Amino acid sequence: MSLTGLNVSTLAQRAVRGHRTLAVAAAIGLGALFVVPSYAQGTKIGFVSTERILRDSKPAKAAQSKIEAEFKKRDQDLQKLSDSLRAQAQKLDKDAPVLAEADRIKRQRQLQDMDSDLQRKRREFQEDFNRRRNEEFSAIVEKADAAIKKIAEQQNYDLIIQDAVTVSPRVDITDQVIKALGG
């Protein structure tokens, strides 16, 4: 038997095995077409947008207002410090040509120190704001989760998904959850 004959024979055996595998896969696939729809027909699925709950619900709006009120004074203080720094930088730019080298360097260092202080205070402000916001919103999420579970039990949902890429409006129950949270 030649080398070419062996290769043809091996290829023929592989083709037969490949066709058998393809036939088995096709049979399984056809079987799945009949099984999946009968199972899926009995499944009730809902969707909830956490983003909308944290934006549109009354508790979320109240929490946002509360947080903004808590941080309003600090925000105003940061704005005043920023305005002062900007004014001093403009004054230095204007006075620089007539200042002695030592005075100019001294004022530049003061501005750099003020800028560093401002940046640090902004970071602290943002960290505190985020921490406080997360505290408030985590409480809202817990309440929303309880409302979702209650709705799921009352309306016999098998699965409720939060935050999906695309969703049909007919399975969106976000408005029901917002209503359960008080609007």
Sequence-ordered SSE layout with sheet pairings:
Layout: H1 3-40, E1 45-48, H2 50-56, H3 58-95, H4 101-154, E2 159-162, H5 174-180
Parallel strand pairs: 1-2
Describe the 3D structure.
- There is one protein chain.
- Helix 2 crosses helix 3.
- The relative contact order is 0.15.
- The protein is rod-shaped and about 85 Å long.
- The chain is built from five helices and two strands, in the order H-E-H-H-H-E-H.
- It has 183 residues and is mainly alpha-helical.
- The protein folds into two domains: 1-42; 43-180, Protein Binding, DinI Protein, Chain A.
- It has helices at 3-40, 50-56, 58-95, 101-154, 174-180, and strands at 45-48, 159-162.
- The protein is 79% helix and 4% strand.
- The longest helix has 54 residues, at 101-154.
- It starts with a helix and ends with a helix.
- It has a two-stranded parallel ribbon with strand order 1-2.
The CATH class of the largest domain, by name, is Alpha Beta
**SS class:** mainly alpha
What is the annotated CATH architecture of the largest domain?
Answer: 2-Layer Sandwich
For the sheet with most strands, the description reads: 2 strands, parallel
Relative helix content? over 70%
Mean pLDDT: 82
Stretches with pLDDT under 50, minimum 5 residues: 1-39
CATH topology name of the largest domain: Protein Binding, DinI Protein, Chain A
Report the principal-axis shape: rod-shaped
Summed up, the helix count is 5
First and last CA, distance: 84 Å
> What strand order characterises the main sheet?
1-2
Residue fraction in strands: under 5%
CATH H level of the largest domain: which superfamily?
Skp domain
